[in-house]
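Sequence in, structure out. Go.
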Amino acid sequence: MAFFSSYASRSLLRRLPKLLRPSPLRRSLCAAAAGVERGGGGGASSAAGFFVDGAPSSMRGVVFWEPGRPLAVEEFRMPRPKAGELLIRTKACGVCHSDLHVMKGELPFASPCVVGHEITGEVVEYGAHTDNRIKERFPIGSHVVGAFIMPCGNCFYCVKGQEDLCEAFFAYNRAKGTLYDGETRLFLRSNGKPVYMYSMGGLAEYCVVPANALAVLPNSLPYTESAILGCAVFTAYGAMRHAAEMRAGDSVAVIGVGGVGSSCLQIARAFGASEVIAVDISDEKLQNATTLGATHTINAQKEDAVERIQEITGGRGVDVAVEALGKPQTFMQCTKSVCDGGKAVMIGLASTNVMGEVDITRLVRRQIKIIGSYGARARQDLPQVVKLAETGIFNLQKSVSRKCKFEEANSAYEDLDRGKIIGRAVVEIM
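Output:
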């Protein structure tokens, strides 16, 4: 399915008169030529327009308008951060199945919106009245990675330390496409109309991110590959660390080894799993899984996955099974694959109102635990995820199977929809 509308390269070379452009943080006269012709390579920023203290006044972003209508690259006014928020010059953004669920109308979300929710970038500005401790933690120019769950830090669950259940995130961002004052930070350049934000709206040249959702990215880690830390790896870490409470020596099966599932394989090995079983219907993905730590692979189209898992584990089943597809069939496979007292962890999103079946008597008698897990906890977990990558325990290079330019995101989403991306695709933006 075609998500992007094609658009011709447009020359923005033109002249604008000098303008007064007061900033909320500084009042200064700034003027510059509006036209810098866009470079074609690497999605380099051209953000033409007059400049305020060196910052462009506009940017490009990828907009989802409605199901069945192609995505389009649009011009936006430069987003402005508010208190506790940072403006990030986006360097890379991962291509995730969660975006596809929104694009295909399988999950309700406010539209028009900018998709993309796992990003790396550079800090360029703070919102007015931002706490000095945030500025000290993230100096201008800092390299950062952003988590897709952006905790408010103040709600009932955030105070308890369960930031993955943040009330504000679900009530405002996931329900309304806004940040926590109930407003988006994205407005079209042409008419000023609002465009909503899926997480931070990361598939854009700049994005606004609450400081609670950011972690410093060491200079030793590359922008492009590190983008997956904020969703694919973040989600896997939350599933293994919090939902499964995985212990060294546990046996683990992962059903569906795409971007998130393959991250689960690496996290399981990092946590000391004795056996790591990868289940998929793609031989190519299964072959890749062996390079990421899988000790066994099962093609579920060629053999019964549950029976094979029981054979590998001496008839018991695994201690932890992870379902990363969000399908009724794999939901059932996951629950049947665990041993007595085992944990079936569900991380795959499904279309609205899709139901999974479970054997109730076995659930009760054999103490099967079925646990949902959406992600990890940004403030406490994202720095730990970064350390796994920094030390090389998590191999970023092997996890990213495709890099593409901003203008090529179309083909990446189409191939993701067709199951053609083996690991994770990442859009290089600037």
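Check: Residues 51-230+377-428 form a domain with the Quinone Oxidoreductase; Chain A, domain 1 fold (CATH 3.90.180.10). The first helix runs from residue 97 to 103.
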